[in-house]
Automatic annotation (TrEMBL):
PANTHER family: FLAVIN REDUCTASE-RELATED (PTHR15020), UPF0659 PROTEIN YMR090W (PTHR15020:SF50). Pfam families: NAD_binding_10. The lineage of its organism: Bacteria, Bacillati, Bacillota, Bacilli, Lactobacillales. This is NAD dependent epimerase/dehydratase family protein. Residues 7-184 form the NAD(P)-binding domain.
Length: 210
């Protein structure tokens, strides 16, 4: 597949690009940081800024001739409205208009369920709530929204849990492996998946979804 990863210079994005390329996909690494480097020859670096207007994004996506888009970008709290919320929405709309069938969103723990939020990340969760619900309610893409808890730098175990009872920790590598694993998993289409590190293999957890 020909895949765009938006947010390719972040911790999740960089590893996601490398792992998708290792799976044989042609990957467009979308980022504002054109000094980013990747090891695979299947990766093409492309300047992509979700702050531009929606019609520009549509044209850029059409030019790239994509099969799938991942949104894993984030402003690290510096520009929640323009990047994490409205930037995501513009990209969702642009993917819709460009006819790109598969859209995968990296979100945050229970972002679509305000009753589960604490106060610490409330503004971030509000931004993700807006972006997630827009994808659900205003597009017709085959989307999947992944909502992990806190990300850690610990080595990936390859074992996770979907729909855990509390916002437990998530190895970044496990999150990336789930993002790769759900790409062609049709049983994840139209689903919002919360996750944490767990006891079952990623393949097992994905296969159990109905």
């Amino acid at each position: 597949m020909r895949i765009l990863v938006v947010g390719a210079s972040g911790r999740v994005g960089h590893l996601l690009v490398e792992k998708l390329a290792a799976e044989g996909h042609e990957v467009i690494a979308g980022t504002r940081h054109l000094d980013e480097t990747f090891t695979s020859k299947r990766v093409v670096l492309a300047k992509l800024d979700v702050l531009i207007d929606e019609e520009q994004l549509v044209n850029e996506l059409l030019d790239l001739k994509l099969d799938a888009v991942y949104f894993v970008a984030g402003s690290k709290g510096k520009n929640l409205l323009q990047v994490d919320a409205f930037g995501a929405v513009k990209l969702e709309n642009a993917a819709e208009k460009a006819g790109i069938d598969r859209f995968i969103m990296l979100s945050s723990w229970q972002a679509t369920n305000p009753k589960a939020w604490g106060e610490e990340l409330r503004d971030y969760n509000i931004a993700k709530f807006f972006a997630d619900n827009w994808l659900i309610d205003h597009t017709t893409r085959n989307y999947t929204i992944l909502q992990p808890g806190a990300l850690t730098e610990t080595p990936g175990s390859g074992k996770i849990a979907f729909d855990p009872d509390s916002p437990a920790q998530n190895s970044i590598e496990n999150v990336v492996d789930v993002l790769v694993g759900i790409l062609n998993a049709k049983n994840t289409y139209g689903k919002v998946l919360s996750m944490s590190d767990g006891e079952n293999t990623i393949e097992t957890e994905i296969a159990k979804l109905v």
